[in-house]
């Protein structure tokens, strides 16, 4: 029997987000009710606090031990291992579906649900990782660590807005994880905003103080990328999927780092 979401505890919903978005054994702490997984997007940026902090630590401290390019590569690999390549899988499926499905909505959804990766998915991942690596490589380790710390959570906050603008493209029974995310309440929306903005404070403070960060572009460009992705997804699917959420996060985050790199 499914427990009503409103009857679950706030910490159960947060735990569900960490179980859902990472491969770390948070499930050993407790097993949240199934209904908690409908709220995981509301705490998605909070998971970014963890993955962003780990990446930032590896970039900054790893560069003291290894050459910076190696430390950066280790940081990227670390996040992939922590999340089980969840978002990268979404990006690959997104590229395959929209690249190979044409204007046929059902065909796009069918391709995206296929576990096999195609040509568009491979090319999408190659270009994504190449741009991510080069963008961060052009920042000094300290600034790259600050960017990752803030960019991870902020980009998840921006990407999470898609569930407010579009309906789920599949039914709960045909969804990959058999879960349809609920729309944010005002309280959840404020919480999501705070989760996404707080880790940005060190980057904005240091960047503005030292005069090397265009804070307006850093905040605005990812939102613009999110808007155009929303228009694209709405035109082709008239709804979103979990793969769309993962792809949006990575592409929005990439635009965040590229903006910082180009504004320096």
Descriptive account of the structure:
By secondary structure, this protein is mainly alpha-helical. Helix content is about 70%, strand content about 0%. It has 12 helices and no strands. Helix 2 packs antiparallel against helix 3 and helix 6 (about 120-135) runs parallel beside helix 12. The longest helix is centred in the last third of the chain and has 23 residues, at about 215-235. The model has no long low-confidence stretch (mean pLDDT about 95).
Helix content: 55-70%
Shape annotation: globular
* Major β-sheet annotation: none
Report the sheet-strand fraction. Answer: under 5%
Intertermini distance? 55 Å
Secondary structure tally, helices: 12
Order of helices and strands: HHHHHHHHHHHH
Overall pLDDT metric: 94
Residue windows where pLDDT falls under 50 for at least 5 positions: none
Provide the gyration radius in Å. 18 Å
Class per helix and strand makeup: mainly alpha
SS elements, strand count? 0
